[in-house]
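Researcher: Here's the sequence for the chain we discussed earlier.
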Amino acid sequence: MSRDARWKALLELLVERGRLDVEDVAAELSVSPATIRRDFDQLAEQQMLLRTRGGAVVHGVSYELPLRYKTARHASQKQRIARAVADLVAPGEAVGLTGGTTTTEVARALAVRGDLASGSPALTVVTNALNIAGELAVRPQFKIVVTGGVARAQSYELVGPLADGVLGQITLDMTVLGVVSFDVTHGAAAHDEAEAAVNRLLCERAERVVVAADSSKLGRRAFARICAADTVDTLVTDAAADAEMVGRFEEAGIRVVLA
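Model: Thanks. This is the structure I predict for it:
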């Protein structure tokens, strides 16, 4: 197992459990305790965790796993969701993409669509996510608009009044919204209030809003509300979504696509 794969696995386990023991996690990952101790020390230097005698604990009382360590979570579901979302985009449209692992997969799915291989532009993409802008900027047929703002290290998203200024001057055909949680009663939400504010503006500037979220995000609440459920036109999720929950979304007037 490579170092990057171990680090992803360790951080995933730490988020899930809150505390890890060197000997236990070494056995679980089939590596030596010395390797795990070294990994813990290096992650502690990056303030990704706190070292304890014989293990590690979550860094701080509120923990948000940085984007680069989230990529393996529900990866196959996110890729299927992304392809289904990409199919909802028509050539020549202006599309807003918020940050997140699922929306990053949407960007990649759009990039390989054959009918978007040419055009002037084939697609206009407006995003506050630096990683998405970087991936799509090499596609000359795409017009890429970046909002500006201050970058959040956890999500690569640009936030703040500079982003607000750009978004106030544009209109979009569609916004693809990545979320931490989505619920009929509580709406779509994120961990960070500044992120939520920019994502809210992307939704307000769009003709239609599509939430791209794997089933683990559904029926949950998070700290910072992005928008109410009734502002969402379509939810694209995976086939593991609870049937009763899907029914509640449909009763609220939201089209549900199971990928």
